[in-house]
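Severity: low
Component: inverse-folding endpoint
Summary: output formatting inconsistent between runs
Steps to reproduce: submit the following structure tokens with default settings.
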């Protein structure tokens, strides 16, 4: 069963391609090729702008795809979000010139520029202010103060906003890359199984990225203290050493815990400690 997968061009493409590659799915083609060949999974792939992906997945032109939550909301697309990958997080923010007062501005009619027509409209209506919305097509931050009083735009670091002498006064929403599916595709048992298999591979890779395999030896008297320190996925694996000279212990550990954990293990009597990357973990 061939699945039709649509991938984003541009900013979020790099991390998605790396994820697929780590799943054993390789795409062959240069940057001008919108229909790359695929090896490692039965997929028919096309590359499009992220803005177009949610609508095309919704109407069934593609079975699955990757898109930012911001464009899913902007297109009001009824797709099934299978997983928030957390790639390329951004915030959709409200910005005004850095010397202006936001509360004072709310009392008059405002000109607002945004690439997000629907997201901006919902936000401004909830805010209850009088406004005129201008649809921008990139470089939204250059509109104020001459051509707009306010902008609603995405940012990851705020650097471009500050460089244009603007300040953030509100956060409209947060967005990151989502793995999405067409609802009808999930109703097809064969397609659903293929989609779930792909999702399992992706989850295994992402679990592996968060963890390392920690292996060590310890004496018989230290084993309980060592095991108590290890926050494994379930339970550590414990095996007797040759000639019953102690135990070998291994566990999958969150990378964030390693720095503080290793000194405690050494103090508890662990020796011959090895740390190994994990490619996949389930």
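Observed output (run 2 of 3):
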């Amino acid at each position: 069963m061939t699945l039709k997968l649509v991938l984003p061009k541009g900013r979020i493409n790099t991390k998605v391609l790396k994820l697929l590659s780590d799943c054993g799915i390789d795409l062959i083609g240069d940057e001008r090729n919108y229909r790359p060949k695929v090896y490692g999974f039965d997929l028919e792939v096309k590359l499009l702008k992220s803005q177009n992906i949610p609508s095309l997945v919704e109407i069934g032109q593609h079975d699955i795809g990757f898109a930012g939550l911001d464009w899913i909301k902007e297109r009001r697309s009824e797709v099934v979000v299978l997983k928030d990958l957390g790639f390329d997080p951004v915030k959709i923010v409200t910005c005004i010139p850095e010397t202006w007062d936001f509360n004072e501005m709310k009392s008059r009619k405002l000109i607002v520029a945004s690439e997000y027509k629907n997201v901006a409209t919902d936000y401004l209506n909830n805010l209850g202010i009088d406004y005129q919305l201008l649809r921008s097509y990139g470089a939204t931050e250059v509109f104020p103060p001459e051509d707009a009083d306010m902008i609603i735009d995405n940012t990851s670091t705020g650097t471009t906003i500050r460089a244009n002498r603007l300040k953030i006064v509100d956060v409209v929403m947060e967005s990151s890359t989502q793995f999405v599916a067409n609802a009808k595709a999930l109703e097809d048992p064969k397609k659903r199984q293929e989609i779930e298999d792909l999702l399992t591979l992706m989850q295994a890779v992402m679990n592996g990225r968060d963890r390392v395999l920690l292996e060590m030896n310890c004496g018989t008297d230290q084993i309980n203290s060592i095991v108590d320190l290890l926050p494994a996925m379930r339970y550590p694996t414990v095996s007797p050493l040759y000639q019953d000279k102690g135990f070998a212990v291994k566990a999958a550990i969150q990378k964030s815990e390693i720095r503080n954990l290793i000194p405690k293990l050494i103090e508890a009597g662990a020796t011959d400690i090895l740390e190994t990357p994990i490619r996949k973990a389930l």
